[in-house]
Fold:
Amino acid sequence: MNTLQVQQLQELLANPKQIAIIPHRSPDGDAMGSTLALYLFLKKLNHTPIVISPNDFPEFLAWMPSSETVLIYENNKAEIAQLLARQDLIFTLDFNALHRTGELEQVLKNLTVPFIMIDHHELPETYATITYSDTRFGSTCEMVYNTLVALNKKELIDKDIATCLYTGIMTDSGQFRYPKTTGTTHRIVADLIDLGAPNTEIPNLIFDNNSFDRLHLLGRALQNMKVLPQYKTAYTSLSQQELQEFNYVKGDTEGIVNYGLTIKNISFAAIFIEQKQEGYIKISFRSQGSFDVNQFARTHFNGGGHINAAGGKSFDNMQVTLQKFEKIVSEIHI
Ligand code: 5GP
Ligand code: MN
Structure:
């Protein structure tokens, strides 16, 4: 955030306000961590913040401090739309385009109060009064940490705020493995540990939280995996029926796509998940090295994201989608 933006933000926060904080649809650890950290921080500054998530968050994030205060737009659309109309300020965190909030987009579009975007995805939209967007960061949580420091309010980071920020940095960096993890990331994380983030408990809460059904679902995804060594690609799929067979709950498919990348000499992995209710196939793409899956998702599958992690959608059926995917992969250089 540049000096002018810090000044603008200080002015916007100078007197107590009603402030809505919005993560992207299907919030992950970074989206939840950044919104909850900001929520806890703004409360300490005597504002009246509220986190409004477009839809429910996964159960493995339900332990996060103040997650019980998060309102779910999908569960109560009319009332939440009215609540949004009464806000003085809107923060949108961990996404670059309003359509990433699903149906909430229409409500947000009609608001006239200032928006503040904090995000690390490519090609940010221009709806915000303050756009703090920088793809060099591995997580929005790291950017929220920087924002609190820039506001000269580091002393307000307590154990709960540190816990939320640590969670987002840890999950979005693949436990400090992905290329955007820098010395600065580790210095911030060290600081958050000193401020009380329970660094050895958090991975346990996030990752050692499987149901037996979830492990079986993972087993099926691994069985369904197809490897195309000549294209350095591995992909898998899960049908709606398979999700039902293993009593799918939100979050169960999280991280499965990464298994493809653990195969030697594979640098592009994808998972296709049939979502009959939504009427499309949700796709996750991951890469190692220079292959840009953000570009791939944008060009071919109505999506986007980052260089090494992106997502998209297909409105064809599974068979047609997978055939299309294989054809594209065979025609490009990975
Ligand atoms: P995931 O595969 O975990 O859903 O998403 C990986 C990354 O790509 C995340 O940073 C996410 O925000 C982004 N992403 C996922 N789906 C979409 C999409 O449909 N459109 C765009 N623009 N980005 C997406
Ligand atoms: Mn993120």
About this structure: The chain has two domains: 3-206, 213-331. The domain at 3-206 is CATH 3.90.1640.10 (inorganic pyrophosphatase (n-terminal core)).
